[in-house]
Specification:
single chain, 128 residues, alpha+beta, Heat Shock Protein 90, 3 helices, 5 strands
Length: 128
Amino acid sequence: MDHRHRPHFVLALEPVEGAVRAARDTVRAALEGWNRRDVHGDLELITSELVTNAIRHANSITLVLYLPDDKTVMVEVWDDNPQGPSAPILDLQAEDGRGLLLVGALSNSWGWRSTAEGKVTWAQAAAP
């Protein structure tokens, strides 16, 4: 079955601080609507980190959440900045800069791809 015919959700976000909370709340509500619970909050944290990066570097952001199969959840953050995320430099004294490390630790896989309008940063995780 084509993933576009499976449960999915799309949300346009403004690049403002409140977008992170809106994205987390949307992920929680969508998963609950699909009878799946993010018990440990991993998908909410993954979403928070991807949206936070987009807010810092882009002007246009869209969150896409879908279930490509019965065992997987995909979180995609589309934005208008064509530059891909850079590998984090670990600084134990820094207050930020660990977001993509968290995404990598909590997801099965993650990455990014270019689009005509910018890029998509995505993470794939086990469906709760």
